Each structure stands twice: as structure tokens, then as C-alpha cells.
């Protein structure tokens, strides 16, 4: 399955842009056909998608958040960057894919390297906030299934579910403790306090 290549700057007029980062280099691995070096352009973290566009290359990308399975700040590279890994099998139409791998197993990596490395935290936070707007439907369904399985339990206040020993303990506790009425101590408690 492919992700989108742009041949024109994205129309952001109807987008909610959470972060814009000018002068950012993008490195795509495996590389795009004929592009082995980072491409300089502008990064737009919008609520709907992540966009990158280079006016000098007259090209860019648009990636849906559910396709991004990992995003992080990487400081271990030659240049600090925002590292994104796409879901296996997601790639660009003109990407140079390894011939010895099945397309469904190929993992595409994106490295966004802003000239201003102080912007990494802001980009990361914007990506995190926007990704949260697009939860993984499959993961959510699995979580709901797990929650449904664990919903059945015995309420210990239901005396029918208690064993004889537990019922005797409950009767003893009820005889020893008297809960306050409407948040106020009962008359007996007032006398004990004097």
C-alpha cells in the first residue's frame, strides 16, 4: 500500500496546522528513486496528516497518522531528527524497494531534520497530539474485547455471593460499626464523645 507523493504544495487552507517547521531536511529510507540525500523543505504537522513539501524539488509527501507506527526524537544520528517509522507495507510509489523482500514486509523510515534543532520538542509534541486524534481502530477493538472479558466479577456486597464465613464476618462488622446518618454522628456517638 502506498502513501501519497505530492507534486504541488499542500492546500492548508482547510487544515488545522499544529506546527510548521521551515528549513527541514527529509530523508526517506529506503530512498526515493534518484534521491539519496536529504531533501530541504517545509514540514507541516496538521491534525489530518503530516505534510512535507520542497519547493526546490517541486515534490513532497503526505502521510496519514495511522500509517505512522513510531515517532520519536532521535539524538543518536549525525543530525538530531524526528524519526518516524511507517507500518510495514506502507511505501511511496517511486521508492527504491529491496528486491529480495516482500512488499508487505518493507518498513519505511522518515527522518525530519530541522535546521533549528531546538524545534524538535515542539514537532514531537504536535505529532503526538495529532496522532492521539487518530487512534488505531484495530488496537482499540482489541482493547475493548479485553475489557469485555474482564467485566464479570462478584460484588462482595451481594450477600448471596458470600460464603458462610464471609457472611458471618459481614454481620459482625455491621454490629460493631454504625455508619453516620447524613454525615452526622448518631446520638450514641455524641454521648460517647462527652
TrEMBL record:
The keyword Nucleus applies. Pfam families: Voldacs. It is found in: Cytoplasm; Nucleus. Residues 185-194 have a biased composition (Basic and acidic residues). It comes from the Eukaryota. One of its GO terms (cellular component) is cytosol. Transmembrane segments: none annotated. Its main location: cytoplasm. Keywords: Cytoplasm, Nucleus. GO terms for biological process: mRNA cis splicing, via spliceosome; spliceosomal snRNP assembly. Residues 175-194 are annotated as: Disordered. This is Uncharacterized protein. It comes from Lichtheimia ornata.
